[in-house]
Design a protein that fits this description.
Strand order of the largest sheet: 1-2-3-4
Structural class: alpha+beta
CATH architecture of the largest domain: Roll
Helix content: 40-55%
Number of strands: 4
CATH class of the largest domain: Alpha Beta
Low-confidence stretches: none
Largest sheet: 4 strands, antiparallel
Number of helices: 3
């Protein structure tokens, strides 16, 4: 999850557009997106989200079939199209890939138990060190 931007196989690299002020309309974004056959976009129903990056002069159109289209916000040119695997990996990681109830009733309790085991493990690791230090200080008095 932390290295997803370092591997283009997982998440496509962000391209740079021409300007920093978005000049294209939502209607134009939809029409441009429809021209990418892999994304299978026919209407707004086929789009999962738009991610606008004004400082990079581009926006990302994430299709529901996990294809990502990067569009220049100044010219409307398609900068890149690629399959985005990070959303699938993230949904497996948080449990929503299986079912929304799995996320809340299995993954969340398992995470809480793991946190408890981790904290008690740290305590059990530090306890002998602390006892040895106290004994050593008591013997030197």
């Amino acid at each position: 999850m932390q290295t997803k931007k370092q591997f283009t196989f997982i998440q496509p690299t962000e391209q740079r557009g021409a300007g920093v002020v978005p000049m294209i309309s939502l209607t134009q974004i939809l029409e441009i997106s429809k021209t990418v056959p892999e994304a299978e976009i026919k209407s707004w129903d086929n789009i999962n989200r738009l991610d606008v990056r004004p400082s990079r002069g581009m926006l990302k159109v994430s299709a529901k079939n996990h294809w990502e289209i990067q569009i220049d916000t100044q010219t409307g040119a398609i900068l890149q199209t690629a399959y985005r695997r990070s959303d699938i990996i993230e949904s497996i990681h948080d449990g929503s890939f299986f079912h929304e109830n799995v996320k809340m009733w299995i993954f969340l309790p398992a995470g809480i138990v793991l946190l408890f085991i981790w904290l008690t493990g740290i305590y059990l690791f530090v306890l002998p060190i602390s006892v040895k230090r106290r004994r050593k200080n008591a013997n030197h008095r």
